[in-house]
Amino acid sequence: MFDWITGILEGGGAWAIAALMLLENVFPPIPSELIMPLAGFNAARGGTPLWLAILAGGLGSLAGAYFWYAVGRAFGRERLRWLIARHGRWLTLNLSEFERAEAWFNRHGRAIVFFGRFIPTVRTLISIPAGIERMHRGQFLFYTAIGSFMWSGGLAVAGYLLEDRYEMVEDWINPLSTAVVVTVVAIYVWRVIRWKPDIRDTRL
């Protein structure tokens, strides 16, 4: 898995990094905790320069967050509640989780938009209530961008520094990266199978 992902990053360069980070925020096939360290590792070996990898990762993450912001802004609360009630299984989301994200946003506002970029799942969910509540677009992009670039940059730098120690970790980094992706997919499948609507869902 390690070689496969690094092969994608080497072949696609900055575009591949941006695309994977966008997808990670829309529907996470490969988590950013794996993408950006490998982008940094690849940069240390002469691939896409570190600064460009960080730029691409941050922009891809920002674009993915804005996608959900736009969905929330365009559909509004009631239509999204209806969609979650009908099709939440495939998003592994029910009304309780949707309302929890709304409560986080209403309680913490701009702070959760920023800090949410560092928390798996939250970084995807929190963009929806930001759009529903019509948070100022410029503010949303500003706080999301800062959080996204800090997160992407930190992970990429960690991977960049790892390059000098590759021989020390090569025996476990490949199976570990495979395990991460398999775990993400397994959790998604498990949540789809186990998904149950709230009682309120059946009334919508």
Unreliable parts:
none
Helix content: over 70%
Rounded to an integer, what's the Rg over CA atoms?
18 Å
Counting structural domains, the number is 1
String of helices and strands: HHHHHHHHH
Estimate the strand proportion: under 5%
Give an overview of the whole structure.
The chain is mostly helical and 204 residues long. It has one domain (2-203). The chain contains nine helices and no strands. It has helices spanning 2-26, 32-44, 50-91, 95-108, 110-115, 122-125, 127-132, 137-162, 166-194. The longest helix has 42 residues, at 50-91.
Layout of SSEs?
Layout: H1 2-26, H2 32-44, H3 50-91, H4 95-108, H5 110-115, H6 122-125, H7 127-132, H8 137-162, H9 166-194
What characteristics describe this protein?
9 helices, 204 residues, mainly alpha
Q: Would you kindly provide a brief summary of this structure?
A:
By secondary structure, the chain is mostly helical. It has helices at 2-26, 32-44, 50-91, 95-108, 110-115, 122-125, 127-132, 137-162, 166-194. Helix content is 81%, strand content 0%.
